[in-house]
Amino acid sequence: QVQLVESGGGLVQAGGSLRLSCAASGRTFSSYAMGWFRQAPGKEREFVARISWSTGSTNLADSVKGRFGISRDNAKNTVFLQMNSLKPEDTAVYYCAARQLKEPSYSYWGQGTQVTVSS
Length: 119
Prior knowledge:
Blueprint: E1 3-7, E2 10-13, E3 18-25, E4 32-39, E5 46-52, E6 58-60, E7 68-73, E8 78-83, E9 92-100, E10 108-109, E11 113-118
Parallel strand pairs: 2-11
Antiparallel strand pairs: 1-3, 3-8, 4-5, 4-9, 5-6, 7-8, 9-10, 9-11
């Protein structure tokens, strides 16, 4: 059974940084893409970043390019979201997700971690 466990959220002032972690377990993820999504109160969930577990290729949403980065540690089966220059509008619950590369949608989701950016 796939498990994704996020950690690293918290309260930070605008301009600060946080690093989120997503520990993945339950199978081999070499044929998976890992994604980060976020959902702010009253808003729909939105894509933030993704990384191919095998190649390391990444994509970032335009709203976070230049401020956020996604990476993975294959040995630890962990994906990271480094968030710099945080803004109040980055406040949301951040979710880690996994999908097989051949599939169009994400099948597995973590429980989420709260990120709050104060102005």
